[in-house]
Structure to design on (130 residues):
């Protein structure tokens, strides 16, 4: 793979927090942002504002909640977590248009972009699966 091919593929598969905010402002109905993090609820209590919460472990049973006509943006914890990449691959295999939010929620919070505190009652196993 040539360097140009790599960077083109990377840009096609990812979106930065700043680029996502700009794109969402220009066309708010085009995108669905999904928090796919696994792990204990107490560490997932902060999420990106307006994100849908569908942990990777629940994805198959909740696929009907994800609209195929929109561009799906998925995120997980940080650059070291590959959960969003796993979810993106799965969704692409099922006919969705998907990008991964670069840097996950860590990058989003570092840039002081809007977050929401959530209170979830459902039990998710403590193993994050990253």
């Amino acid at each position: 793979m040539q360097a140009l091919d790599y960077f083109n593929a990377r840009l096609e598969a990812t979106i930065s927090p700043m680029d996502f905010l700009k794109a969402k402002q220009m066309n708010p109905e085009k995108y669905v942002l999904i928090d796919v993090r696994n792990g204990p609820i107490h560490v997932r209590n902060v999420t990106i504002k307006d994100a849908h919460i569908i942990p990777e472990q629940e994805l198959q049973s909740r696929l009907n909640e994800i609209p195929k006509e929109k561009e799906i943006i998925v995120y997980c914890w940080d650059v070291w977590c590959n959960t969003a990449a796993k979810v993106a691959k799965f969704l692409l295999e099922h006919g969705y248009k998907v990008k991964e939010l670069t840097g996950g929620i860590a990058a989003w919070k570092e840039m002081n972009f809007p977050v929401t505190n959530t209170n979830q009652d459902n039990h998710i196993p403590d193993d994050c699966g990253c």
About this structure: The first strand starts at residue 14 and ends at 15. The CA atoms of residues 58 and 112 lie 29 Å apart. The chain has one domain: 3-117.
